[in-house]
């Protein structure tokens, strides 16, 4: 996948100014280019929401498996899911990148292009960043969001018994995609599994779902980044409730079953402990929140923070940095 | 300098949750701990200002020369100088860190403590971050600022002929400190040069100078991060003016002269191309801006973007990432 890039100059050859100019060409912004970025004023009562995520080569992505554009996409999704999980709307992104001097320019412009493509869907802007030499490729993205109105943000500690648990997006796809990549490599994954691989390399994220959920009765939200059970456990523990998942609502679909068959693994592992789907998970008093489906209920705190059909989950281990 | 830290566990031993808990202990914040940080609402008409900087071990800092606390300090100063350079007030910081699993916990808590100590001076808060394993230590800091009022921010393109050029902070000290560290190592730098070494390892930055300058007639501002001539050239080029420096106002002081004598180098190199002082540099119609001194004038655009006593500078090369 890297051959096409060998013709472009290296970062050392083109120099810092040249690299920055190339980034600004693929991700134009009127705000970018001063010491810091000044964002436009929101309506009165608007709060600013910020989050940051760091992606390290060969840990969070592999250039054999993902194009630079996909790495940019994924970095945006990771951060924008966190912004949405507060009930806020993403408005801006900063991109800090460390890369060896021998890195091809097209890798950097590809990441920037991927970021630009993805943030366009959210009407957000790449407003600034930093570029530095280093031994490895490390991408650090900061997202800025805007939280309007006087309602509280969607926090981890506001799930209440009686609410329904809702999800927007697939669950387990990213982890299945990763296992398929490990087994087959990007170029040889059977075509029937492309959607799973794509969920890993460039996960989907619908705009405005956090805002809509907050407007229709959601109180707690997070995204499935570390694993369904891990992330729901955080909500359950912080809110002192138990989350009871409906097994029928989360059971592996035909794609996951088929992939599990080919790989000889348990598809529930992907569903329960997979992570990196960045599916939005909320608790709400509202019904039929657009884009979401019900996957469970919030009940009074019992022995386990999260149960599936009343039983403790079979897989609980999630993604860990260390 | 690292012996005292050998007793603390490694990041792998304590695990991600333990590391995060330890960070939150040294840098407590009520805002930190959700998917994203929701900042408090500013007065109406307040704009949000954001900037990011990435520090790579052995490129931006060396653990032989700097304590973890000093690395935290410097990371804050780099970012807060950029916020101030817009005329804004820093209010929050995010800290993303990549470090090998064998890294000692005390390194991470030391950096966090340094960040916390420094942002306290600005009444700012460490509101979130990310932690991930990686081959090298990479620290990525994002600062958020608040820009009040309806006046425009202090941008690079608003210097005007007739203004005076003013500076807040020392010029050339950081580069001299770096050369002294290269020559002697941290533990053997002669005591008379401690102020220069400290300017490199934990550069000073006065709070509120950007706000004060904006309130008293400044229109353009930057900080001396890449080198005096490089950074003023950016203002001069973007504003289509020439900046005429007064040599008497920037000439090397007794400390720089003495260090240059010991190292057998030209102290003007530190002053003109040193960088990393994070001294605030502004152009203003105001007089006696508190904390600043006049170092030159803005005149109509001539042949050179920056002159010293009417002549082209002898040293122009600044810090480059590539």
UniProtKB/TrEMBL annotation, chains A, B:
<dbReference type="GO" id="GO:0009228">
    <property type="term" value="P:thiamine biosynthetic process"/>
</dbReference>
<dbReference type="InterPro" id="IPR036921">
    <property type="entry name" value="PurM-like_N_sf"/>
</dbReference>
<feature type="binding site">
    <location>
        <position position="60"/>
    </location>
    <ligand>
        <name>substrate</name>
    </ligand>
</feature>
<dbReference type="Pfam" id="PF00586">
    <property type="entry name" value="AIRS"/>
</dbReference>
<comment type="pathway">
    <text>Cofactor biosynthesis; thiamine diphosphate biosynthesis; thiamine diphosphate from thiamine phosphate: step 1/1.</text>
</comment>
<feature type="binding site">
    <location>
        <position position="226"/>
    </location>
    <ligand>
        <name>Mg(2+) 5</name>
    </ligand>
</feature>
<dbReference type="InterPro" id="IPR016188">
    <property type="entry name" value="PurM-like_N"/>
</dbReference>
<feature type="binding site">
    <location>
        <position position="225"/>
    </location>
    <ligand>
        <name>ATP</name>
    </ligand>
</feature>
<feature type="binding site">
    <location>
        <position position="35"/>
    </location>
    <ligand>
        <name>Mg(2+) 4</name>
    </ligand>
</feature>
<feature type="binding site">
    <location>
        <position position="82"/>
    </location>
    <ligand>
        <name>Mg(2+) 4</name>
    </ligand>
</feature>
<protein>
    <recommendedName>
        <fullName>Thiamine-monophosphate kinase</fullName>
        <ecNumber>2.7.4.16</ecNumber>
    </recommendedName>
</protein>
<keyword id="KW-0808">Transferase</keyword>
<feature type="binding site">
    <location>
        <position position="130"/>
    </location>
    <ligand>
        <name>Mg(2+) 1</name>
    </ligand>
</feature>
<dbReference type="InterPro" id="IPR006283">
    <property type="entry name" value="ThiL-like"/>
</dbReference>
<keyword id="KW-0418">Kinase</keyword>
<dbReference type="GO" id="GO:0000287">
    <property type="term" value="F:magnesium ion binding"/>
</dbReference>
<feature type="binding site">
    <location>
        <position position="223"/>
    </location>
    <ligand>
        <name>Mg(2+) 3</name>
    </ligand>
</feature>
<dbReference type="GO" id="GO:0005524">
    <property type="term" value="F:ATP binding"/>
</dbReference>
<feature type="binding site">
    <location>
        <position position="35"/>
    </location>
    <ligand>
        <name>Mg(2+) 3</name>
    </ligand>
</feature>
<dbReference type="GO" id="GO:0009030">
    <property type="term" value="F:thiamine-phosphate kinase activity"/>
</dbReference>
<keyword id="KW-0547">Nucleotide-binding</keyword>
<keyword id="KW-0067">ATP-binding</keyword>
<feature type="binding site">
    <location>
        <position position="52"/>
    </location>
    <ligand>
        <name>Mg(2+) 1</name>
    </ligand>
</feature>
<keyword id="KW-0784">Thiamine biosynthesis</keyword>
<feature type="domain" description="PurM-like N-terminal">
    <location>
        <begin position="33"/>
        <end position="146"/>
    </location>
</feature>
<feature type="binding site">
    <location>
        <position position="53"/>
    </location>
    <ligand>
        <name>Mg(2+) 2</name>
    </ligand>
</feature>
<feature type="binding site">
    <location>
        <position position="319"/>
    </location>
    <ligand>
        <name>substrate</name>
    </ligand>
</feature>
<feature type="binding site">
    <location>
        <position position="51"/>
    </location>
    <ligand>
        <name>Mg(2+) 4</name>
    </ligand>
</feature>
<keyword id="KW-0460">Magnesium</keyword>
<comment type="function">
    <text>Catalyzes the ATP-dependent phosphorylation of thiamine-monophosphate (TMP) to form thiamine-pyrophosphate (TPP), the active form of vitamin B1.</text>
</comment>
<comment type="similarity">
    <text>Belongs to the thiamine-monophosphate kinase family.</text>
</comment>
<feature type="binding site">
    <location>
        <position position="82"/>
    </location>
    <ligand>
        <name>Mg(2+) 2</name>
    </ligand>
</feature>
<feature type="binding site">
    <location>
        <position position="53"/>
    </location>
    <ligand>
        <name>Mg(2+) 1</name>
    </ligand>
</feature>
<feature type="binding site">
    <location>
        <position position="276"/>
    </location>
    <ligand>
        <name>substrate</name>
    </ligand>
</feature>
<dbReference type="InterPro" id="IPR036676">
    <property type="entry name" value="PurM-like_C_sf"/>
</dbReference>
<feature type="binding site">
    <location>
        <begin position="129"/>
        <end position="130"/>
    </location>
    <ligand>
        <name>ATP</name>
    </ligand>
</feature>
<feature type="binding site">
    <location>
        <position position="82"/>
    </location>
    <ligand>
        <name>Mg(2+) 3</name>
    </ligand>
</feature>
<dbReference type="GO" id="GO:0009229">
    <property type="term" value="P:thiamine diphosphate biosynthetic process"/>
</dbReference>
<keyword id="KW-0479">Metal-binding</keyword>
């Amino acid at each position: 996948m890297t051959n096409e890039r060998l013709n472009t100059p290296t970062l050392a050859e083109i120099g810092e100014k040249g690299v920055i100019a190339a980034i600004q060409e693929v991700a134009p912004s009127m705000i970018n280019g001063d010491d810091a970025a000044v964002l436009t004023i929101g309506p009165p009562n608007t709060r600013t929401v910020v989050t940051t995520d760091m992606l390290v080569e060969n840990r969070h992505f592999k250039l054999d498996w993902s194009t630079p554009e996909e790495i940019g996409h994924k970095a945006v999704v990771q951060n924008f899911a966190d912004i949405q999980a507060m009930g806020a709307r993403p408005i801006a992104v900063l991109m800090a990148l460390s890369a060896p001097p021998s890195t091809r320019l097209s890798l950097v412009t590809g990441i920037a292009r991927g970021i630009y493509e993805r943030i366009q869907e959210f009407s957000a802007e790449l407003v600034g960043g930093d570029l530095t030499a280093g031994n490895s490729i490390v991408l650090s993205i900061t997202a800025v969001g805007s939280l309007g109105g006087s309602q509280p943000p969607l926090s981890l500690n506001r799930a209440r018994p009686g609410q329904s648990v809702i999800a927007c997006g697939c669950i387990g796809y990213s982890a299945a995609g990763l296992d398929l990549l490990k087994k087959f490599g990007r170029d040889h994954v059977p075509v029937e599994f492309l959607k799973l691989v794509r969920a890993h390399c460039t996960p989907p994220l619908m705009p405005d779902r956090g805002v809509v959920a907050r407007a229709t009765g959601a109180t707690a939200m997070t995204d499935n980044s570390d694993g369904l059970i891990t992330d729901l456990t955080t909500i359950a523990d912080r809110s002192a409730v138990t989350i009871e998942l409906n097994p029928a609502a989360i059971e592996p679909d035909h794609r996951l079953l088929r992939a599990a068959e080919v790989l000889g693994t348990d598809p529930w592992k992907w569903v329960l402990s997979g992570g990196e789907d960045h599916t939005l998970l909320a608790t709400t008093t509202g019904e039929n929140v657009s884009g979401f489906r019900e996957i469970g209920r919030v009940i009074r705190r019992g022995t386990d923070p999260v149960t599936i059909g009343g039983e403790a989950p079979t897989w609980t281990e999630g993604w860990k940095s260390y």
